[in-house]
Write a structure and sequence with these properties.
By secondary structure, the protein is an all-alpha fold. The chain has a domain at about 60-165 and about 255-289. It has twelve helices and no strands. The longest helix is centred in the last third of the chain and has 34 residues, at about 255-289.
């Protein structure tokens, strides 16, 4: 029987996957303009929640909060551009490399140690990207590496969130993303505006709503269950992406590309399991002493 935490994470992953589909369906609209709509919706909802919780929207550590906003905005701009130019499953797979970059950047931001085995897992994931690049002619190499760069910025955003974790309210951290993103994407959209038509408006609205639902159910999952038991369920997003990419966009890959995706995910999952095992060992050691 599925626990609440597992159900919430499965819903979260589904909502994020559907959000990716919506972004791809409006590929004729610049990514910055899509993010503009997403940011407005996110800003309004986040502000409303903060007001209801009676929490100051500005936080305490403004430099790191702005840095998190810049990293998150950069990651999203790059990721949405990737989604609009390469197959859905490939874009989603590359984005899952962000925990690797989070661990590497965590060396400098939160002074966390990276063990030798973790470096081996990181290399395995990079090997997967190289396999995809080498065998899949339908994947634009430029946008494949734009996707990798997106996961670097996502990893940076995660590392900054870890630094802010005990210092700021989670909703304040979320609020700063649209706050920082809006001026940048708004300025770009002003000079490169493409008028949405018909169903475009509904899809742009859905991008914002599905993102909020994904974040909400992910938070609920982490509150209901141990992180180690539900975090790996994020990778079911690849199954969603493969199915939705085939059903909606007719996306099929060479066998080598599937192998490359598998290597990327294998490296990420092995790293996560290894970190969980180390955390349990350290907890047992502290309890014994």
């Amino acid at each position: 029987m599925l626990t609440k935490g597992v159900k919430y994470m499965l819903l979260s992953t589904l909502f994020f996957s559907l959000m990716n589909v919506c972004v791809k369906l409006v590929a004729h609209i610049p990514a910055a303009e899509v993010i503009l709509f997403r940011s407005v919706i996110s800003l309004v909802i986040s502000y409303a929640y903060l007001r209801r919780a009676n929490v100051s929207v500005w936080g305490h550590n403004k430099v790191w909060l702005v840095a998190r906003g810049v990293a998150g905005a950069s990651a999203l701009i790059l990721f949405f551009n990737t989604l609009q130019h390469i197959p859905l499953a490939t874009a989603a797979t590359v984005q899952y490399m962000s925990p690797i970059f989070s661990a590497v950047l965590g060396l400098f931001i939160v002074k966390e140690r990276v063990r030798p085995w973790q470096w081996a897992f990181f290399l395995l994931s990079f090997a997967g990207v190289l396999v995809i690049e080498g065998v899949e002619t339908s994947v634009d190499t430029f946008y494949l590496w734009v996707g990798v760069l997106s996961s670097v910025f996502t990893g940076l955003a995660y590392a900054i969130v870890r630094k802010l974790n005990t210092q700021e309210h989670p909703l304040v951290i979320i609020f700063y993303f649209p706050l920082v993103a809006l001026p940048a994407v708004g300025l770009y959209a002003l000079f490169h505006w493409v008028q949405p038509e018909g169903w475009d408006w509904a899809l742009l609205l859905l991008v914002g709503l599905l993102t909020q639902l994904g974040q909400y159910y992910m938070t609920m999952s982490y509150q209901s269950e141990e992180i180690s038991k539900v975090a790996n369920l994020n990778y079911i997003g690849i199954i969603y992406a493969l199915f939705l990419g085939y059903a909606l966009f007719g996306e099929l890959f060479h066998a080598g590309a599937y192998a490359g995706m598998g290597l990327v995910l294998l490296g990420v999952v092995l790293n996560m399991r290894y970190k969980n095992r180390l955390a349990k060992r350290e907890a047992l050691h502290q309890r014994a002493h």
